[in-house]
Amino acid sequence: MAWIKSHAVPRMNHYRSSEIKERPEDGLALLKKYIDVAPHLVPPSTDESGCANVLWHPDLHLDNIFVDPDTHQISRIVDWQSASVAPLFYQSGVPRLCRYPGHVREGWVVPKRPENFESLDKNEQKRIDDDLESETLHKYYEAQVCKRAPRHWAVLQQQTVSIIRKPVWLVTGAWENRDLFFLRESLMELVADWEEFFPDVPCPIGFSNEDVVFQAKEQENINGVGHMLTLFRDQAVLPVDGMVDPKDFDIARENCRKFRDIFIRLGKNDEERELYRNLWPFQESEAEIPAVSEG
C-alpha cells in the first residue's frame, strides 16, 4: 500500500474503460477489502494437513525438469526462484505439467474415447486423443498423490481451499502486475460464497453495483481477446506468451501485425476499432506499428 501511495499514478485500463482511468485509489480500496478479510484466509488450526509447512516448486514443467537419457531418472530440477516454504493450504495443487485444463471427472475413472470415435474426422479424433492424454495424466498425478502424499491429497480434497486462498496468491504486486481485476474477481467470488464458508461470521466487505458492472465489462473484454488469441495460437501463427526463438522473430512479428490488423477490423465502428487496437496484447511502439486500413 505504501508503494501505491508513493509511486502509482492513474493509468488507462482499456479492458475496464476507454474513458475512465484506473486510479491508485482503486487499488488501495481493493487492498483495504483484502485486509478486512485476510484473518479468514488461513487454514483452521485443526487442519493438520493444511497447516503443514512444505517446500514447494510452483513452476514444474518440462523445461524445468532434466532427465538422464540413459537411466530415464530425473537428474535435476531448475528455476527455483519462486519456490517457498509455506502451509500446504496455500501450496497444494496439480502442477501445470500434469494439469488438465478442462473439467476433470471425479473418482478413479480412466478417460475413454466416445463410442462414435471411429466415425469422427481425423482432426476431431486428434483433439479427443490429446484431451484424453492430458486428463489421464492429471488423474495419474492425483492417484500418485493419494498414494504417496496423503497430506497433500487431504488438502486437494477440500473444495473450498482454492477460493479462500486465491486472494492471498493475487494480492502481492496487484497494482504493479496489473492484477487488480483478478484480485477483485477473487474477492467477489469469496463474498458470493461467504455464508457457505463462514456461516457464523458476517462478511466484512461488499461490492457496489457499479463495481459489478465494470467487472463484467472487463471480463467480457478479457474473454474476447483471449478467445481470439487462442484461435490464432491454435493455428500456430502467434507464439504462446509472446516468446519466440530469435531466428523466428521477424516472422513472428509479421504474423503478429497481420492478425492484429484482422483483430482491429472486427470493430464495427471507429470507437470499437480504437478499443480493439488498445486491447491487442502484443503492443509495439508507435513508430514500429504500420497503419491499419479499414478496408
Automatic annotation (TrEMBL):
Signal peptide: none
Database matches in PANTHER family: ALTERED INHERITANCE OF MITOCHONDRIA PROTEIN 9, MITOCHONDRIAL (PTHR36091:SF1)
Places the protein is found: Mitochondrion
Classification via InterPro entries: Aminoglycoside_PTrfase, Kinase-like_dom_sf, Mito_inheritance_9
UniProt keyword list: Mitochondrion, Transit peptide
Organism for this UniProt entry: Penicillium salamii
Sequence ranges assigned to domain Aminoglycoside phosphotransferase in this UniProt record: 29-90
Gene3D superfamilies reported in the protein's UniProt record: 3.90.1200.10
One term under GO cellular component: mitochondrion
Protein family (similarity comment): Belongs to the AIM9 family.
Name by which UniProt lists this protein: Altered inheritance of mitochondria protein 9, mitochondrial
